[in-house]
Structures are given as C-alpha cells and as structure tokens.
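Below is how a single chain appears once it has passed through the pipeline. First comes the sequence as given, then the structure the pipeline wrote out for it. We keep one example in the README because the format questions we get most often are answered faster by looking than by reading.
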Amino acid sequence: MAVLAAATLLLESALTRLLAVAQYYHFAFLVISLALLGFGASGTYLSLVRRSYPLDRVLALAGAGFALSTVIAYAVVNGLPFDSYSIAWERRQILFFALYYLALAVPFFCSGVGIGAALAAADGQSHRIYAANLFGSGIGALLALFALAAAGVPGVILMSAMIGLAAVFAGPRDGRGWSRLRGFSAAIECVGVAGLLLLGLLNAQARAPMGLTISPYKGLAHALRYPGATDLFQRWNAVSRADVIVDAGTRMLPGLSYAYAGVPPPQAGLSLDAGSPMPVTLIAPEEFAAADYLPEALAFKLRPVAAVLALEPGGGLGVLQALVTGGGATAPASRTVTAVVGNPLERQAAGRAAGAADVYRNPHVMTVSESARVFLRRDRTPYGLVYFPLTDAFKPLTSGAYSLGETYNLTVEAFDDALGRLGPGGILVMTRWMQTPPSESIRLIASLATALERRGATPAAARLVAYRGIQTITVLAQPDGWTAGELAQVRDFVATRRYDLVWAPDIRPNEVNRYNRMPEPADYLAIREFFDASDPRAFYAGYPYAVQPATDDRPFFFHFFKWQQTPEVLATLGRTWQPFGGSGYFVLLALLALVLVLSVALIVLPMVIGRPRGAPAAGRGVPRLRWRALAYFGFLGVAFLFVEIPLIQRWILLLGYPTCAFTAVVLSLLLCSSLGSVLVRAAWLPKRAAVAALVVLAFAAAALIGRLTDAALGWPLWARGAAAVLGLAPLGVLMGLPFPLGLAWLEEEARGLVPWAWAVNGSASVLASVLAAILALSYGFTAVLLLGASCYAAAWVLLFGSPGVRAGRPN
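Resulting structure:
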C-alpha cells in the first residue's frame, strides 16, 4: 500500500505543474479537490460493495487501475480542447472541463479503493496501515521535487503510473486470491507495462506522443505560430518549464519611445511555463542603442554611477539596459548590477539563447539565484537604484485568468523591503502596462504610496513621479524627495522622448496628455483623485474596480473584480473578451457549483440509491444525533481545507515556488494529522482538551502565520523549509484528532450513520477546496484561516455537547 500511496502523491504534485503549464495557474486547490473527489467516491463505493474480496486482489486491481487510468487520463486531458481562458464565452468548455476534471479524478478513485480496502481489512492493525500510507506518501511527495527536474511533467506522470503498477506485485498475496487474479492481472500488467514503456520510448525520441498540450491562448503557443519559429531549448525543473523560441520576428522593447529611429536589436524569446516570451537580446551592451529610448532610462540618467539591483529580470533586457544607460558600458567601473534570478532554469535558458551575448556573464553583473523577496530581506547592501523590470505580458483588465496567481513581488511588503535597500537619494523604478480604465497603474501608485508611508516618507505624493507612453506607465519612487533640478531633468526627458507626464509633486494640468493623446488623461485624473482623497478607503470604495494595494495576506495584484461590475458583465456576456476577470470571476463560481454537483452525484447520491433495505437513512432512526453528526463531519471537511489551502498559498512566499509549498504543507499536515489519528487510541490523551487546543491553535495560526513568514523570510532555504514543516507540526497533529473521535462517537451511538459521515465529509472537503481559493481572492488568507478555525470551534461544540460525550464517551 505504501507503493500506491507514493504513486498517488507523486501524481498529485505533477498535476499542479501540468495545470500551470497547460493552463494559466497551478490550481493547487483544484488538484486537492480532484484527489478528495476520487477518495470520497471510493469510500462510498467500498461502503456499498456487498461482496467481500481478498485484499490482495483489491490492491492488485487498484494498482493496475491507477496505472492505466493515469495514462488514459493524461491522454484525455491532452486530447480535450479544454481551455480555461475561453470558458467565459465558449459554453462547450464547461462540458470539456467536467470531462477534464472527472478523467483526472479516476486515478485517485482507484488509489482510494486500494487504501480504503487495506484500512477496512486492518483488523486491529490500522496503525501499521497508517504508517505504510504515511511512508509512501512522504516518499512520493519528496520524489516529486527531484523527478520533475529529471523527467518533466509527462515523465513524472508516466513514473507515477509505473509505481502504481508496481503495487500489483508489492501487495500481500494469499495463494487462493493471487491464483484467481493471476490470469486477468497478468494480462493487465503486460499490456500496461508494454504500453507505458512504448510511450516512454516515444517520448524520449520526440515530444509529441507524451508532450503536453498547452492552451492556444498562451504566449508560447502564439510565438510558435509565427512563421519560422522554432523551440530551440526546452527543459524542466521542479518548479517550472523553460522554452527558448527563435524566429525572425521576436522584437520586445516594452515602452520604447516613438522618438527612436533606429532598428530594434535581434532577440530570442524565453518562455516560462508556456507563458508570454521574455526578450533575450542578442547583442553586446555597447551595441544597444535603443536603451536610451526605453522609459526606465530616466532613472539611470538621474543616477548615472549608482549600483543597481535588478529583481527578476527574466531574459536580461533590464540588466543590459542598466549596463548601458548612464555610462555603464562606456565607463564599466562606474556601475555594477546585481541581478536576482530566483529560478536557476531561467538563467540557464537565457544563457543558452544568448550564447556569447549572455548579459549574465558580463563581468560587471553579479547574478544571485534566490527569490527576490528572500534576497531583499537577507541582503543589507545599499543600492542607488532598485529596478523591477517589466517581464510579463500585457494583461487585459478583464482577464482574470491571471488574477488567481500569487504575485508576492508586487505587494506592499515587497515594495517596503525594496525601499529599504535604497541608499541615500536612491530611486525605485518600475514599469507596468496600462489599461483602460486605469487599474494596474492605480494599484501600483497606491501600493508604493502605502510602502512610502510605512517608512515615514510623507507625503507620498511628493516622492513619486510617473509618466507614460501609449502602452506602459513608469513610476519612480524617491523616499528622500525630489529636488528642483531632478524634476527639471524629468520634464526634459519626457519631452525629448515624447512621453506624457502623469504625476509629479508640482504637476500642472496643462502638462498631461500631450504626445500620446487619449480622449482624457484617465491615469492622471485617477491618481489626482487618489492623492486628494482624505481617506484612501473612500477612494477604493468608490473606484469602479478593486485597486487597493495587494498585500502578502492577499497577494493578487491582477484581481480587479468588484461585485458592482455584475450588471455590466452580465449585459456583455459572450460579446466581449472577459475570461476569468469580469464574467470569468463568475466562472469560478460556476466551477464551485460544478464541483458541488459532482461531489453530490459521486459521493452522496450513491449512498441514497445504493442503501440496503432496512439500513437507516441519514434522516431517520436517530433523530437526536443525525443532524448533529452530519453537521459535525461537514464542519470538519470545511475546516481542514480552509486551513490547508491558504497555508499552501501563503507558503509560496516562504519557499519560493508553488511546488515546494504544496509539498511542504501537504506532507507536513498529512504526516502529523495521521500521527494525531493514531494518538486517539492513547488512554492518557485528554480528548476534549486536545480538540479545544486545536481550536485555539487554529485561531493562533491565523494571527501568527504572517509573522512567522516575515521572521523566516531571510533565512537559508533549508531553514525556511524546516520552519514551514515544523511550524505546522503541532497544528497538524491536532487536526488529526477530530475525525476518528467523531467516528468513535458514531460507532457507539449510531453506527448506521458512519457511511453518511464519510460521504458528507468528502463532499464538504471537495467543495471547501475550491471555496477557500475563491474567498482568499476577495478577503485574504487570514480570513479563510479564521473561518477554518471557526469551523473547528463549531465541530468542538457539536462533538462535546452531545449526551454521549458528556457521559464520558469518547472522553
């Protein structure tokens, strides 16, 4: 069974990467939902099976079923034209999503049948089954981190199928059961192994057979449709996939001034997780004439010899500009650039694309392989310029497929740390895309203003300068304030480069909207209104979109949806481009409804239809306990996921990547919760006090998780990993107590309700995994954690307020 558990966790980890590349987001909450749906349906199935089968047969069939269904599911999702980006306007995508979801849930159903059957047959040895399950799950979770780098998502999915197939041979065998199974199982094994090896061989020779199908709307798919485009380099690591695209048409210089009359330099494209390519410029620094006409050039001219910190510069365009503009190339000793590139594969791919022109190998560039947030917290070097290069593609205001993504480099805390790295007179510079009505620009100004105020640089309006082209807006923040001479340089730069001034401490209305004419100077008017507001909260409440600053507790910089948009969204549904942002937010609610329907159909409904005659229904037989028991297990299902999902999302900041956060949280809670389940048998354990301690600790986690992250952010990776795992250990142990306590209660008071308890808990868990992500978008992680703690509190009241418990059962 340990082998099957390892295969299951390995597949679960691989699916987060599959969705990140094939769609737009890691969808960790959806992967957990898939697993829970499969396990819940398997529990219902086992409770309804009338005939007992030898355990060796069940485990063998479960392993073979897991292996084959994993490969079939991968083939189905690769073949289905499902695209989360177009689901808002293309109705058939809802059907495709349902098929996509169900196909991926089948392997977890097979795994759940095997593990559930082993637990059912434990006969007093359930602690050993728990131990085997834990050991296998731990191996699978850890293996994923190494296997993804070695084999990529297709290879890891193939590996998980093969490991699942190995469970056919690894399980217990009684002679009679194994003999009856031999013919059928051997055929499955031979065909399965042959098919899997053939697919693996084909995948080694060419990417197509097991290659991952990506959304046609993703940037990589667009780039590869360009005539002559080739994918020069493709590699995986544990946290991403990198592609280098070479063609004659790659030209990416965001915000380039129309005053530039030269020829754009040759470039390649670097794509991460099949996203929009980032430019890799294929020339030496001294040849980059266009650098002086990019919007950030002003900052480099204002501080011509200052040391530069470039955070996540992608393909290196920002680093190249820092070397050139302001004298760096002509006087090399005058400027040094520290480039923080969190993903080593990104650096490797950029070097492969650039060859001899690799800017990261320039002697005046120091490259640091570390998360930008970790580096900002750890480093104590003062810099003259802190630069956030624009490396992501334009995102339409209504395109909230991106809004689900955690953007920890664009939160108030990130800007606060960046401002803290500035030396006297230092400047923070950032360019973002413009939308109509203004959204990114207003959120950026509000975030920087909040960060400046935290550092006592008030009024913030006197510390900021902003100017725009036709597509981008650039913001400069100077905590020490601007001199008259510097403001004169700003005006000279925007005039000669034909940019439009959007904000300056002494801006005049007749200075705006001069060169890149728009019907009205919307960004200037919105920024003016923001700074004129006596209370920023009143401005946020009155603005048509959600533009309040993103924070580490709610790090969704691209989520702009407000419920007041609903009439407009519904009026234009199907006639405008609104994937996941406007109408797309309702798609998340539709996803919630779909998950509810599927969980009821596959978990609860079979209990109703398949209930043997004479067996008690959920609403009969024990009226005093029935609703209390079902509510109890429902609260437990919601509580566990309302703790787990926000912890995964929050730990992305601490550990740097979704894959690492997913592994750490799932592994820690899984191990510790199972230990707690075993401790339920201990006579010395005061159950009532232990569950009360869980409630207290859950509320404490909601209050302290941000402080723990903040305190540990600058630590080495091993220390942060240890903090993430060990910090959750006490909570995890206690989270393992309520479920077996509830089962013990029902087994004494109303045994007929036990299958219903499993069904209700499974359905609530499936639903809660999606609901937690939706609530976090609007209210933040702390709010979801508080709701989870409240659900545990409600469960405590329901359990220990029952007559059986008051009489001393279960303690």
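The longest helix spans residues 126-170.

See the next section for the split statistics.
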